[in-house]
Amino acid sequence: MFDKKCINCVEYKRCRDSFVSWIFFSIGLIATFSLRVVTVLINIDPIYGKIAWYIGVGGFFIFFLYKFRVNQERSRLITERNLVRKISGLEKLDRKDYELVEAILCALSSNKDRINYFFIFILSAVAIVVALYFDIFR
After folding, report:
1. Contact present, 39 and 127 (Cβ < 8 Å)
2. How confident is the model over 49-74, as pLDDT tens digits?
3. Taking CA 4 as the corner, what is the angle to CA 93 and CA 86, rounded to the nearest 5 degrees?
4. Which domain holds residue 104?
5. Among 32, 84, 93, 115, which residue has the least CB neighbours within 10 Å?
């Protein structure tokens, strides 16, 4: 899936499909689903709605804590390498700068992020339709 130079990049742990990244990805999907079914479950039994809400909010707390940590580490690397100053000043980048830019671009093209956004969008649309059904027709 990745070529050999990607294996040596500073973002490889976050960019590749590691077990840890799949765990947090799964937590994010479960949280997304849980928060979207609250309206349905609360109409079936309020305790189920509350459980779904706690799972969703707790899951998002864990997921976004992980994403925050990843973004903080990227930001630290960019600051350490003075990358913004170098690029805005059209300065020559060294090999490590190019590797960092490559790693950031690799991480930004993550399929897991696109899948996560897709699920959030679709499940949110379904949740709105179901909530409208319960609020208007029921």
Report:
1. yes
2. 999 999 999 999 999 999 999 889 98
3. 10
4. 4-137
5. 84
